[in-house]
Amino acid sequence: MLCSVGMVNFSGIDIDTETIVNFLKQEIRLKDLCQEIVFRDIIQQAVQEYELSVDDDEIQEEANRQRYENRLESSSDTYAWLEEELIKAEDWEIGIQKRLQSKKLADFLFKDSIRSYFSQHQVEYERVILYHITVPYELLAQELFYQIEEEEMSFYEAAHLYDVDEKRRLFCGYEGLVHRWDLEPDVSAQVFGANPKEVIGPIQSREGFNLYMVEEFMAAELTEEIAEEINQKLFDEWLLRELNYRIHESDSLSDTLEL
């Protein structure tokens, strides 16, 4: 069931680690995994440098959250889940500790920068309540555009009758609360430059020909969710800089040794 040196037992089937590595190579997933491993090493060094710690209560709280999320009501349920995931309880706890350390480091480094970043990039966090129709033919999209403009049909009726997306069709074209970055740049420019209730399009995409309508513009607001996104973004950028620094240092050392 669990990993041994050089071997993983998956439901009674032994898989050696070389086979796993070769699979990751063939699926072009090895680089990303290696990058995550180096990121973890960078985080551990920084956690030690800044003397950040995670106590047992924090680990237990996160473990309880995960148990609740996975509907693990008893210890036996938890151990069965861990066995199914091919890990031991101590591996699970270490993983929780590492993720909490990562979050604590991100907060330590960037929490005080979130409001400033938001102020400088506020336009990026504007949102709209958006309605959207996709149809397969340009002629049909153009005809719907004119009918909506001439008030022969509402945007909601057109979406309910013609949208190729079943979910949007059932909700009369309702796309939801959308940020600028959720849309392709050319679509975003037109949507955020339009007036409420103005029909936008047709705009061609891989799915077909699209019409859009903004129900309401929502001012940028620094919510808890947005603050967390900014914090993670700044942290991810920091990790990449640290990784590039290590790569540069490694290359410099190799050049020196060759000399």
Pairing-aware structural class of the strands and helices? Answer: alpha+beta
Strand share of the residues?
Answer: 15-25%
Strand order of the largest sheet: 5-4-7-6
Low-confidence stretches: none
Q: Give the strand tally.
A: 7
Straight-line distance between termini: 49 Å
Helical residue percent band: 55-70%
Give me the strand/helix succession: EEEHHHHHHEHHHEHEEH
Largest sheet: 4 strands, antiparallel
Shape: extended
Roughly how many Å is the radius of gyration?
25 Å
Work out the helix count.
11
Mean pLDDT: 91
Oligomer: single chain
Description:
It is a single chain. The protein is α+β, with helices and mostly antiparallel strands. Helix content is 58%, strand content 16%. The chain has a 4-stranded antiparallel sheet with strand order 5-4-7-6, with helices on both faces. A 3-stranded antiparallel sheet has the order 1-2-3. Helix 3 crosses helix 5 (89-110) and helix 5 (89-110) crosses helix 11 (224-258). The longest helix is centred in the C-terminal third of the chain and has 35 residues, at 224-258. The model has no long low-confidence stretch (mean pLDDT 91).
